[in-house]
Amino acid sequence: QWQKRVQSRARRMIVIDDLANRTHQADWLLDQNYYLNGHSRYQGLLPPHAKILLGPEYALLRPEWREVRAKKAKLQAPAKNIVLFFGAADIHRQTTKALNALANQKFFVRAVCDERSAQYKELLSISKQHGDFDIISFGNRITDAYLWADIVVGA
To answer: Coil, strand or helix: which one is 135?
Structure first.
């Protein structure tokens, strides 16, 4: 396993994981997601000495996200603007499902999608059918989209 080889050359090692489906040879594990059964998800997958850093307070974020949090402290009512972002891969096609579910609703929707994604062309087609939908590139400054949004749906 690659982690054993790396650990033999390093004093300490941290692993970033959110799947909890494989063993790790690390001193720390970082999972920035919130789960009700957080610590038990990694039971038996880490060495006994490993420290688990679990939850959003450990999220690795660029500094501009502090600005977003400060500016978006409260939900605008009624909510009109929605951003969808299910990650670069979105292997379960959640963006397509969400756009279809929001069709003919009274929202403006911006979906963030990598132009290399298998569903990118389909999303563009859906957005052309609905004047209130926009597809923005993964490379754009996502924080601007979040500032625009009243609601953000994602993974």
So the answer is: strand
